[in-house]
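To: structure subgroup
Subject: Chain for Friday's discussion

All,

I'm putting the inputs and outputs inline so they're searchable in the archive.
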Amino acid sequence: MSYAAARRQIMPAIEHRSHRGLNNRAENSHLPLRRRERAMQGFRSPGGLQRFVSIFSAIRNLFAPPRFRRSALATHLHRLDAMAQWKAIAGVAA
């Protein structure tokens, strides 16, 4: 018995739609989990990953320019300003 015939026999009142785009919502809901798995690969424990990410995200937010389109000069000036702030915070001589 084919799948369609079995479906009609077992669940005749249920609408079954099979289109290649209908599963995208379910697949996309798994992306954050897969992103966490990928990030975890190089670390021995979840605690080690958490310690790294908590520090790295703060530093990255300082150095990464905003996402909207900017000129190379604006990006360069943003990074120079970020480096000056980093040196002031870290107590490194400029």
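Points worth raising on Friday:
The radius of gyration is 25 Å.
The chain has five helices and no strands.

D.
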